[in-house]
Amino acid sequence: MPDGLRKLIDSLREQATPRALAGVGILVVLLAAVGLSNLATSVAARQQDVRELDRSLAIQRSLANGQQWLDAAGELAAQKERVEARFWRGATTGIVSARLQSAIESAATQAGLDRVRVEVQARPDALAAGGRLEFEITLTARDRDGQFLNFFQRLQTLDGAVVPSDFQWVRGNTIVQATLRAPAIVETATGEAS
């Protein structure tokens, strides 16, 4: 302690009465209580700030996770668009059937199959809501030169998807029978799927 402060304290002790010392003690206790109260208030305010920052961080994390879900949903929507781009389309099931029949007959003829007969029917169970249907195509033809592989390759180049589900080739009488499936969207006059 500096000498000046020590001298001041010593002189106050010599001059102070017990009552004055008690008053100074109470004053020191009150000042300490006020200081502790201010400290407690400050700590409570900082704790509230920390809680608000934690809440803000939780919201940001939630939004970031939400963005991941939005990104995943966007990717799924893009994938759906790519898949549906290969669906056959038409205003009615009859138009879709006619397009399928024409495309399958043309692919079979170009592949070298003879006496081609194609039947197309819309399956009664829808693939999904919004006019998405599955068509079943039955092909019967003669294949004297084993050109059925060429036919299946030509199916892959069609405007829409056509997938073989059953196939029979009898070498003795050269008859090819194939069952094919094709997804389609039957659209309304406004261009939207019904």
Describe this structure in words.
With 194 residues, the protein is of the alpha+beta class. The protein folds into two domains: 3-81; 88-186, Alpha-Beta Plaits (2-Layer Sandwich), CATH 3.30.70. It is 55% helix and 22% strand. The chain is built from four helices and five strands, in the order H-H-E-H-E-E-H-E-E. The protein has helices at residues 3-15, 18-84, 93-111, 148-155; strands spanning 88-90, 114-122, 132-142, 163-170, 175-186. Strands 1, 2, 3, 4 and 5 form a five-stranded mixed sheet that branches. The longest helix is centred in the N-terminal third of the chain and has 67 residues, at 18-84. The mean pLDDT is 83.
Mean pLDDT: 83
Shape: rod-shaped
Q: Count of helical segments?
A: 4
Number of strands: 5
| Span between termini | 94 Å
Layout of helices and strands:
Elements lengths: L2 H13 L2 H67 L3 E3 L2 H19 L2 E9 L9 E11 L5 H8 L7 E8 L4 E12 L8
Parallel strand pairs: 1-5
Antiparallel strand pairs: 2-3, 3-5, 4-5
Helix pairs in contact: 3-4
Q: How is this structure best summarized?
A:
The chain contains four helices and five strands; from the N terminus they run ααβαββαββ. The protein has helices at 3-15, 18-84, 93-111, 148-155; strands at residues 88-90, 114-122, 132-142, 163-170, 175-186. It starts with a helix and ends in an 8-residue tail after the last strand.
